[in-house]
Every structure is written in structure tokens, then in C-alpha cells.
Amino acid sequence: MSTALIVGCGDLGTEIGLRLHAMGERVIGWRRTPPAASTSGIEFEAIDITVGAAWPGAELLVIAAAPGRGDDYEHTYLTGLDRVLQSMDAADAAPRRALLVSSTAVYGSMSGVVDETTPIPAPEGRAAVLLEAERRFLDFFAGRSTDAVVLRLGGIYGPGRTRLIDLVRDGRAVIPQTSAITNRIHRDDAAAAAVHLLTRPGPPEQLYLGVDEAPAELGEVLRFIAGRLGMPEPPTGDVERTRGGARRCSNARLLASGFRFRFPDHESGYGHLLTDGRRRHP
How far is CA 6 from CA 42, 100, 195, in A? Predict the structure, then answer.
């Protein structure tokens, strides 16, 4: 049995940890507030990574930290990451493989098809912070015996992540008048992709995009959900989007690695979610 450390063991981190535990790994989960009770097999520890903690020793590392409400992105993504890397440095540790969960938000408002090789000119705001976190992570492991990989995830949906369903059900959904491409991934596929990259034979590439196989117009997704709910099609109108753009993210590299999706498109994913009784991990 080897040990996996999940830093930021929230909903996604817990799903990753559960899958690793089922494969026979001992799993330690760091989070600010562990669940009150856990029978999952994950050994939760109350750790604020922005303060730091001693390295527990692990052959596999996942950093899936995300800011809470009101938290500063730089404080979580950069200060928190630095503290984790410093703890490894102090222990002279080198896990066998390390994975950083990032986001396709690094592409900002870019349009067209993007992949792992697409240059990102003059990133700002959240994109700049995420790219800097990726750089620090990969630079830290350069020249060490660790296989380091960054997984940029699209918009995650799944148990407890039902915003679009709630908008349609409540009658608040609006189909955008202009093109609004969505690049999504079901929570279970996001976790499965992380485990795949952590455990696949041979060294992974340094960067992968984690999105499903069919980027879709937001209006198409909303119409599908409305149809499954037996509700009328949402109205069309002006929609202010704070994220996204008109880009289509390519997952060709992830597929070439041998990964296969359980939910390759929004119809399979949301179709299952509408009947899925599971809740988000506490």
C-alpha cells in the first residue's frame, strides 16, 4: 500500500480519494474543516494550506485547492501552493507523481479551438493567477524524480452542482442571443481523469485539458434540460457572461492517453444527473 495526499479534499478531492482508496491506496485528505464523520476510508486532517503543515509522506499528490467564499484567489492558489511545496522541500520529499487541478479559465475570453499548445497572450485576473500557479508547480518538480502534471478542468457539474437544472426548474434560465459555448465535465469524469493520470503506466504529459467530448452552446444544454424536465423552452434574451467566451476546448490529448469518458457529452451527463440521487460530498 502506498499513500496518496489530497490537498484541498472537498467534493472533487474526496471523489478522487475514494477512487484511489478503492484501488488500495492509503489516502490522507487535507482540508480546513473535515467532515464531522467519515466512513469513506479517507484520513481527513484539519489543515489550512495557506498556513502550512508538515509533509506527511506520500507517493501520490493531488492539489485540488479552491478558494472559499470571500477568499482571495492569489492567497489560495499561490500562497497555499507555495506552503505545500515548501513542506516537501523541507522534508526533501519527492512523490512518485503529482497532479495540480487547474481550470480552462486560463484561456480567458479567447475564441476558437484551444488545446494544451495554445499560447495565452497577456492573461489577466483569475487566468493570470492560475497560470502562475501552474508555472510554480511545474518549475518546482523540474529536475526531480516526480512526474508532475497539470489538469485544466472545464466547468464541473454533477451531484450538488446543478445550477443549470435549478435555473430551468425555477424559470430563471435564459438562452443567450449570441453564441455561448460551454466546455464542461461531469464531476465523476473529472475525478476519474485525475486518477487515470496519476496511475497510468509511463510518464504523463505535463498538461491536459479535462473537458468532455462535445463542447455545446449553452442554449442547447438548457433546451435539453427543459425537455427532460417536461418544461417549455427557456426564453431567448441578453445574457451577461463573466466567464467563457466562444472557445472550444480540445480533449484530444486526454483521449490519446487512453482515458474514456463515462459521460462524453451534456446529454449523457445531465440525463444521468436528473435521476441521480447522490449528494455532493460533504
Answer: 9, 10, 11
Q: Which amino acid is at 228?
A: R
Element (H, E) at 253: helix 252-256
> What is the distance, to the nearest Å, from the Cα of residue 280 to the centroid of all Cα atoms in its chain?
14
* Per-residue pLDDT reduced to its tens digit, 64-104: 998 876 667 898 899 999 999 999 999 999 999 999 999 99
- CB of 229 within 8 A of CB of 246? no
**Cα separation of 264 and 273, whole Å?**
13
| Whole-Å CA distances, 250 to 143, 175, 176, 212, 274 | 29, 24, 23, 9, 26
Please check whether residue 215 is in contact with residue 281, taking contact to mean a CB–CB distance below 8 angstroms.
no
* Half-sphere CA count of 155, side-chain side, radius 13 A: 21
Asked whether 43 and 66 are in contact (CB, 8 A), the reply is no
Burial of 225 (0-12, 13-18, 19+ CB in 10 A): buried
- pLDDT band per the 50, 70, 90 thresholds, residue 243: low
Alpha-carbon Rg for the chain, nearest whole angstrom, is 19
What is the pLDDT averaged over residues 191-216? 97
* DSSP summary character for residue 257: T
Q: What Å distances lie between residue 218 and 111, 169, 175, 262, CA to CA?
A: 15, 16, 7, 21
- What pTM was computed for the model? 0.96
* Phi-psi sector, 41: left (phi>0), alpha (psi -120 to 50), beta: left
CB distance 273 to 158 below 8 Å: yes
Q: What is the DSSP letter of 62?
A: E
| Residues β-bridged to residue 155 | 184
